[in-house]
Specification:
Family: Belongs to the FGGY kinase family.
Number of strands: 24
GO molecular function, one term: kinase activity
Number of domains: 2
Keywords: Carbohydrate metabolism, Kinase, Transferase, Xylose metabolism
CATH topology of the largest domain: Nucleotidyltransferase, domain 5
Helix content: 25-40%
Shape: globular
InterPro entries: ATPase_NBD, Carb_kinase_FGGY, Carb_kinase_FGGY_CS, FGGY_C, FGGY_Carb_Kinase, FGGY_N
Radius of gyration: 22 Å
Strand order of the largest sheet: 3-2-1-5-15
Pfam families: FGGY_C, FGGY_N
Length: about 500
């Protein structure tokens, strides 16, 4: 018997994921496509938009071939904020510049901050300019690729790129726009024309919708390519971390979502507008909501890097070794700033540090130190959120890193916070499916995705982790000058002619 289903697809940093979900929230089928980012120069992280649509089509066709389902709506999400510039005919002019892991716009951040004023940017936009700001990267293209920029007419992100390919509608969601600092006014919840015209006078910024609003319907050509029925609704979608928060119901005031993936993301829902120059103040994924958010530049990316260095043992074995290492990783301490760092230090020139090494340390110790480094970074962000006026009442975990239990346990032990772990932790694609379901069904995320377990902190470890956290904060301060000097050397030694095909590493989310 054919079942009605919604399709949710998410374009992530290291992979794209798709799910078919029925009206009860049951995942009928899921599929994944792995991909690589391009790192043509130190501090640059890019991806060709063709990958995003090609993988959507591949996922859609695989899922529909494997399951006798009738798709009644489509939901999308993707990493962000990204900057994909196209001409008026939606032809990409260059590879997309990715979110805060790409740190190329330092000069533009400084110039625009001086031009508009740090306090005025924070007041109007909710966030200070940083490597996360899409508007600064638009300015980078204008400064460094002026001939190309003169042809640019449209701005896309992965979710909106899927929407335009599916529906031929050019739209963007409000949340994604609120990460285009300084182009969006979070008070008026619209593009801020005076600054947008100065930074990108010829760019036709997209009309804005909320993530759950219908953007359009699947066109006949898109239907033929992706194997979907023509005419079914497609929702506007949003950035993956916010779709993850939707997938686990972390939308209430006081909720904090922790996304365990290639990077670590934190989204706290607040009662009213809060700002802090060390965090990102955004509009939420749902109308009327506001968030104070943060993100580590790496988390699963470091564990994947270690796995590759170790000769690719499987993750369950590495988790077993890390558990045997024990709290504190037998005296190791890691700074997880392998791609610079986003919040709360906002330092693109920070670098990874592993302190305390001896000849007796093992793979398990190093892997444990990486997991603990994420927990220490999360604690730093949580303290900054609460110092800004945030009121964290519930922490909800989501993403691939929740599997196995050790990583979430370490984060709870370090932060002293219990974490709610729902039944489905597949993440953003499931959130996109839920948004799509709301176009025709009456559904609730609490029914779709009930709580599976609650990870409690272990009080006996609190004192040891308090000491380690103090050392973590001190290590960054004491090593900052050296890290910045080494970052400058890396630019001098490694920089060369940009080449889109020069892939220098893969970001992978892993437990």
């Amino acid at each position: 018997m054919r079942v009605a289903a919604v399709l949710g697809v998410d374009i992530g940093t290291s992979s794209s994921k798709g799910v078919l979900v029925d009206a009860d929230g049951r995942v009928l089928r899921s599929a994944t496509r792995s991909h690589e980012v391009s790192r043509p120069r130190p501090g640059w992280v890019e991806m060709d938009a063709d990958v995003w649509w090609r993988e959507f089509v591949s996922l859609s066709r695989e899922l529909l071939a494997a399951e006798d389902a009738e798709v009644v709506a489509v939901g999308v999400s993707g990493m962000g904020p990204c900057v994909l510039l196209t001409d008026a005919a939606n032809q990409p002019l260059r590879p997309a510049i990715l979110y805060g892991v790409d740190a190329r716009s330092t000069a533009q951040i400084a110039r625009l901050t001086e031009r508009f004023g740090e306090e005025e940017i924070l007041r109007r936009c909710g966030s200070a300019l940083s490597s996360q700001a899409a508007g600064a990267k638009v300015a980078w293209v204008a400064d460094n690729e002026p001939e190309l920029f003169r042809r640019a007419r449209r701005l896309f992100m992965p979710s909106s790129w899927l929407v335009v390919n599916l529906t031929d509608r050019y739209v963007l969601d409000h949340h994604s726009a609120s990460q285009c600092t300084p182009l969006y006014d979070t008070e008026r919840q619209d593009w801020y024309a005076p600054w947008a015209k100065e930074i990108a006078p010829d760019l036709d910024l997209p009309p804005l919708r909320w993530p759950g609003q219908v953007a359009g319907e699947v066109t006949a050509p898109a239907a033929a390519e992706a194997g979907l029925p023509a005419g079914v609704p497609v929702v506007t979608g949003t950035i993956d971390a916010w779709s993850e928060a939707i997938s686990v119901g972390a939308q209430g005031v006081g909720d904090l979502m922790l996304m365990y993936g290639t990077t670590m993301f934190l989204v706290h829902t607040v009662a009213g507008r809060l700002t802090n120059p060390s965090l990102w103040g955004t509009v939420g994924a749902l109308p009327g909501t506001r968030n104070l958010a943060g993100g580590l530049a790496t988390s699963g990316a470091v564990t994947a890097w270690l796995r590759d260095l170790f000769g690719s043992p499987d993750y369950p074995e590495l988790l077993r070794l890390a558990e045997a290492s024990g709290p504190g990783a037998r005296g190791l301490l890691m700074l997880p700033y392998f791609a610079g760092e986003r919040t709360p230090i906002l330092d693109p020139e920070a670098r990874g540090v592993l302190a305390g090494l001896t000849l007796s340390h093992t793979r398990g110790d190093l892997y444990r130190a990486a997991l603990e480094a994420t927990g220490l970074g999360v604690r730093h962000n949580i303290e900054t959120i609460e110092a800004s006026g945030g009121d964290i009442r519930r922490v909800v975990a989501v993403g691939g890193g929740t599997q196995g239990g050790l990583w979430t346990q370490i984060v709870s032990d370090i932060t002293g916070r219990a974490q709610v772990i729902p039944t489905q932790t597949i993440g953003a694609s499931y959130g996109a499916a839920f948004l799509a379901a709301q176009t025709g069904w009456t559904v609730s995320i609490e029914t779709w995705n009930p709580v599976r377990e609650v990870r409690q902190p272990r009080p006996a470890l609190a004192a040891d982790y308090d000491e380690l956290y103090g050392l973590y904060r001190e290590l960054y301060t004491s090593s900052k000058r050296v890290a910045h000097a080494l970052a400058a050397r890396q630019v001098r030694l490694l920089a060369g002619p940009p080449a889109a095909s020069d892939n220098r590493g893969t970001e992978g989310a892993a437990p």
